[in-house]
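subagent[fold] <- orchestrator: predict structure for attached chain, return tokens only, no commentary.
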Amino acid sequence: MSEIPIHDLIGLIWFIVLWAGYTWYADRYARRRPSLRAVMHDYRYEWMQQMLKRDNRVVDVNILRNLLHGVAFFASATLLILAGLLTTLGSTDKAIEIVRALPFAAKTTLAQWELKLLVLSVIFVYAFFKFTWALRQFNYCSVLIGAAPPAGDDAYARRAAGVSTNASKDFNQGLRAYYFSLAALAWFVSPWVFVVATTLVVVVLYLREYRSGALRTLSPAGPE
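subagent[fold] -> orchestrator:
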């Protein structure tokens, strides 16, 4: 670790604290205050109630199929990104020379380069696990739709909505990893740019999930 400058370690610690802190905040308070996750859970519960009333549930299957396609796409894309990162690790010397030739990039040692690529790899491994777990939960939701009883079983509708919401939560956490990976790319420019980019990502995520026009439109009161 002595080969890693202190400002790089500060940037990495700031990155971890903000990501973990925002995830904790979003998971803890998502249902206590207006948020996209809380509002969409209400819609999912209403969806499952309507699903129980339908004899033909082709519409519900098609909705789930669309959700599954989106998750599967990101899971596949994440594997391709991981393959690219591993390939870059295998040609470290050439990659460092290319980065050093960029006028805006910070001077990078071998240890710094490997640490940055390792952090990016960990981010996308985390995203892959989140996407695949979301995929499995959406599959469980499809089974719940297939096994749904006649209308009137409110507890069943709540369970099905809960599974769907949990799958959506993991999918969102995978997408959140993509946002933070963009901040991690700024680390190749400068550790202080990395700090600023991480902060901006958290601000953008907060505004989208708690202060966005989409939230105001989806809320029962509607847009102002």
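orchestrator: received. Logging for downstream: Residues 217 and 223 are 5 Å apart (CA to CA). The chain has one domain: 6-24+35-218.
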